[in-house]
Structure formats: structure tokens, C-alpha cells
């Protein structure tokens, strides 16, 4: 579609003007904006959301770069530095603010002298890996179950509803604590890699259990969405054309669910980061010396009065991650809502 330069002013603001149009002829190509472009335009107007996006990207880059820097020797989260500790004060770091120096920008740990920055960066990698993996499995399982329940209805919907109610009735935290030792041992018996200091098998256990108890809410949400989508003309057309249920589920219905799924995923991430920290404090999860944000914070609780700076840094990082993802999820929900801004 082309418009002359004289009538561009009367065109809708929701149209995208191609800057590479033919300036000599006085004509400019005009293209309608997609829903994704409109959502991004609404998202960019929210300065708090953009700040949260930048912070989230920084943490993601940190999580990706930390293992590489550790392999290169730039980060050293495991080496003890007793020379940086003052034995006369009970092995607390020498100097102010937890022993901050050029070589240790965030200081060192009391009692061990390990570099705090290195442990927090690598801990961010492991914590975000656990949270992303658990959130992805949770959303995937909940989406499939919700689509099947919402589209099938009848007996199938009733059975799935009772399974959801049964799953929600279990106290997830208590189950995590009670099943930890037994399930981890069984996972080792069937060949799940143990990893350094049991990090892999324990992390895998957290992911599986968080996903096992986390999918019912998203399944209920998707089920309600599918009730509306299944009545639309394009679904009726696919049924009349003889499309299989698999095609209807994943080719017709699923593409219309990406907005609530994206929002739910961004809101689920901070919940799982907090859950990992809480489980590490309770003794379930990845153990020292392998760092996660949870076990670093758990170890820092013993020094909250004697070395507050050591406690404050991991607590502030966890709080920043949780707040950033929550703000990002709220902004994504508002941007993807077609009624936003009216």
C-alpha cells in the first residue's frame, strides 16, 4: 500500500511508515503494525518496565558468562584465601566492608576467604538455570493438560480437574523436604549424573518437584482460555476439514495462547528463584561448596550481625532479580492486553 506525502498526516498512528520509501517520488510505503509491534510500543512507553528489562538482561548475561569466566580462571569461587582473614577477630575479613579490594570487589567470605563476587556470579547461573528449567517444564505440562481439558470437556475435563485438585491438596514444601533423601538416592540408582558435590542430581530434583507441584494453576488458566477459543470459527473449520486433535491443539489453539503463557512464565521465574533460596536455607538443594544464590544467602545468615555486608549483598541480588522479573511480568501483561491504554 502506498500513500503520497500530502495525506500521511491523516493516516492512523497505528501504521508503520517505512523510512526507506521512495523520497524522490514523494511516496512512502505504509504497513499496518502487527499485535507484537503494538505490544512492544506499549511496553517501551513504560520506563519502569524498560529498566526491569535491562536489569533482567544484565543478570542473564552474567549467568551465561560466569561459567566461561570460571573456566578461564577470571572467577575463582572455590579457592580459600586465609591470608585475607584476621585470626584475632575470629577469621573475619581484613579491612572494611567485608574485605573489599581491587582483587575482591565484593569482599571475601568470613571463615573461608572465598571471593564473594565469584560465588555470587556462579550462583546466579545455577539459580537461574534451576528457575528457568522448572518454569519451562511447569508451563509446558500445564499448557498441554489445560488444552486437553478445555477442548475435550466432559469426562476428560472432569478427570483432569480432580487430578488438579488432588495435586493442589499436597503441601509442596513438606513433600520437598520429606522426599529429598529417598528420591535423590533413587535418581542416582537409575543413572542420573551426580555432578560435582552432587550439584546436578540435587538441582534436577528441585526442578522436577517444583514442576510437579507447579503445573496445576497454569493448567486451570489455559483451560479457561481454551473454553473460549474452541468456539471460534477457525477451530470449527479445522474440525470440518478433518484435522487431527494434535493439529488442533498445537497448530490452531496453542498459537492463540502465547500472550498469557509469556506473562505467566515471567511471573513464575521470580517465584522459583525465591523457592530455590528457601529450599537451600532448609537444607534441600545444592550443597556447599557449589554456590547458588540460596546457599550463599543461607551461609551468610550466620554472620548477619558480625558481617552485615556479606549478608546484604546476596539478599539484595535475590531481591533485585525477583522485583525485576515481577515488574517485567506485570508490564508484559499490560502490553499484551489489547485493552491497555484505552
Specify the structural class. Answer: mainly alpha
- Strand arrangement within the widest β-sheet reads 1-3-2
How do the SSEs run, as a string of H and E? EEEHHEEHHHHHHHHH
Helix content: 55-70%
In terms of DSSP E residues, the strand content is under 5%
Overall radius of gyration: 26 Å
Quick description:
The protein is mostly helical and 342 residues long.
Describe the structure.
- The chain has eleven helices and five strands, in the order βββααββααααααααα.
- Helices cover 63% and strands 5% of the residues.
- It is mainly α.
- It starts with a strand and ends in a 6-residue tail after the last helix.
- 33% of the residues are buried.
- The strands form two sheets. The chain has a three-stranded antiparallel β-sheet, with no helix packed on it. Strands 4-5 form a two-stranded antiparallel ribbon.
Give the tags.
about 350 residues, 11 helices, elongated, mainly alpha
Can you lay out the helices and strands and say which pair or pack?
Elements (H helix, E strand, L loop, with lengths): L1 E3 L10 E3 L9 E6 L2 H10 L2 H26 L12 E2 L5 E2 L22 H37 L1 H16 L2 H18 L9 H31 L3 H8 L4 H9 L4 H24 L11 H8 L7 H29 L6
Antiparallel strand pairs: 1-3, 2-3, 4-5
Helix pairs in contact: 1-11, 2-3, 2-11, 3-4, 3-6, 3-9, 4-6, 5-6, 6-9, 9-10, 9-11, 10-11
Amino acid at each position: 500500500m502506498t500513500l503520497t506525502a500530502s495525506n500521511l498526516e491523516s493516516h492512523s498512528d497505528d501504521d508503520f511508515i517505512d523510512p526507506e520509501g521512495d523520497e524522490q517520488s514523494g511516496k512512502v510505503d505504509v504497513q499496518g503494525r502487527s499485535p507484537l509491534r503494538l505490544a512492544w510500543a506499549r511496553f517501551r512507553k513504560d520506563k519502569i518496565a524498560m529498566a526491569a528489562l535491562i536489569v533482567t538482561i544484565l543478570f542473564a548475561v552474567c549467568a551465561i558468562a560466569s561459567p566461561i569466566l570460571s573456566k578461564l580462571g577470571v572467577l575463582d569461587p572455590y579457592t580459600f584465601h586465609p591470608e585475607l582473614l584476621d585470626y584475632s577477630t575470629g577469621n573475619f575479613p581484613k579491612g572494611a566492608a567485608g574485605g573489599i579490594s581491587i582483587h575482591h570487589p565484593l569482599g571475601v567470605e568470613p571463615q573461608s576467604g572465598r571471593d564473594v563476587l565469584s560465588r555470587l556470579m556462579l550462583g546466579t547461573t545455577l539459580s537461574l538455570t534451576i528457575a528457568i528449567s522448572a518454569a519451562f517444564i511447569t508451563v509446558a505440562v500445564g499448557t498441554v493438560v489445560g488444552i486437553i481439558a478445555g477442548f475435550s470437556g466432559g469426562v476428560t475435563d472432569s478427570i483432569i480437574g480432580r487430578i488438579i485438585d488432588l495435586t493442589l491438596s499436597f503441601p509442596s514444601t513438606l513433600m520437598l523436604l520429606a522426599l529429598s533423601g529417598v528420591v535423590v538416592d533413587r535418581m542416582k540408582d537409575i543413572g542420573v549424573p551426580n555432578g560435582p558435590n552432587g550439584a546436578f542430581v540435587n538441582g534436577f530434583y528441585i526442578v522436577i518437584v517444583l514442576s510437579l507441584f507447579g503445573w496445576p494453576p497454569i493448567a486451570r488458566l489455559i483451560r479457561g482460555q481454551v473454553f473460549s477459543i474452541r468456539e471460534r470459527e477457525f477451530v470449527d473449520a479445522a474440525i470440518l476439514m478433518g484435522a487431527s486433535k494434535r493439529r488442533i491443539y498445537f497448530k490452531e489453539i496453542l498459537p492463540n495462547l502465547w500472550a498469557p503463557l509469556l506473562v505467566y512464565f515471567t511471573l513464575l521465574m521470580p517465584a522459583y528463584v525465591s523457592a530455590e533460596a528457601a529450599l537451600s536455607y532448609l537444607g534441600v538443594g545444592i550443597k556447599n561448596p557449589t554456590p547458588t544464590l540460596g546457599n550463599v544467602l543461607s551461609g551468610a545468615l550466620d554472620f548477619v550481625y558480625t558481617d552485615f555486608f556479606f549478608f546484604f549483598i546476596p539478599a539484595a541480588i535475590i531481591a533485585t532479580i525477583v522485583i525485576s522479573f515481577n515488574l517485567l511480568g506485570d508490564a508484559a501483561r499490560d502490553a499484551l492486553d489489547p485493552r491497555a491504554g484505552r
